[in-house]
Structures are given as structure tokens and as C-alpha cells.
Write a structure and sequence with these properties.
alpha+beta, about 25% helix, about 120 residues
Length: about 120
């Protein structure tokens, strides 16, 4: 379904690879996931697609608390939002991230850049 890169260690590398994926080779939607691996055991860990298409999905973070609580994951998410400010944010920015993410001086407790209904 297009491109897949693993073991990306920096926001810059993730964004560079994401932007490099040619649209004519896409059979799906470009995205960036945050993955936490359990030390010494690749069978355990967590993963969440934080960027899908043209939006950050903060709603899903509520269902993956170990990623939400990880300092490194928080820094990566903040870095992605900083590097891709044109992307929409869906969902409420979790309290743990609200102070780190600039959302145009909006009221952070109730902020939602966009909403959608299915």
C-alpha cells in the first residue's frame, strides 16, 4: 500500500520521508505513526497513527495512554505539529500536550481546529 519506513528516530527524518512519498505510487493515505516498543520484546508495545492524510488525530491518543504518557512520544508529537502547521487537528488536545503545542492562542481546554461526523 505505498511506502512504509520503520525505526525512524527523529521528527525531521519522519517528515522528510513522509513528504518524499510520490502521490502516483499511493494506494492509500499517507500517515505518520508513533510507535513505542517494549524493551527487549517486540511483541509488546503500542502504536497510533497520529497523522493521517491532512490531519492530526488527537482523539485516538485517549485510547493509547502509554503513548500519551511517554515524554519521548509527547516531544515527537509536538515536533510533528511544529513542522506541519498546515495540518488540521482533530479532537481535543490532551491536557498533557496542550502546554507544549501552539494552537494559535486558542483556549486549549476546549480547542478543536476541525470536527467531522461519520
Amino acid at each position: 500500500m505505498g511506502e512504509c519506513y520503520e525505526h525512524i528516530e527523529s521528527v525531521n527524518e519522519a517528515v522528510h520521508l513522509w513528504k518524499r512519498i510520490p502521490p502516483e505510487r499511493m494506494n492509500g493515505i499517507k500517515g505518520i505513526a508513533i510507535c513505542l516498543e517494549a524493551p527487549g520484546d517486540i511483541m509488546y508495545g503500542s502504536e497510533v497513527d497520529i497523522l493521517t492524510g491532512k490531519h492530526f488525530d488527537f482523539e485516538m491518543l485517549e485510547y493509547v495512554p502509554d503513548i500519551l504518557e511517554s515524554r519521548k512520544a509527547q516531544e515527537m508529537i509536538k515536533g510533528l505539529v511544529d513542522k506541519l502547521p498546515e495540518m488540521e487537528i482533530r479532537g481535543r488536545v490532551p491536557e498533557r500536550l496542550a502546554d507544549a503545542i501552539d494552537i494559535n492562542n486558542a483556549e486549549k481546554d476546549n480547542y478543536m481546529r476541525t470536527s467531522h461526523h461519520r
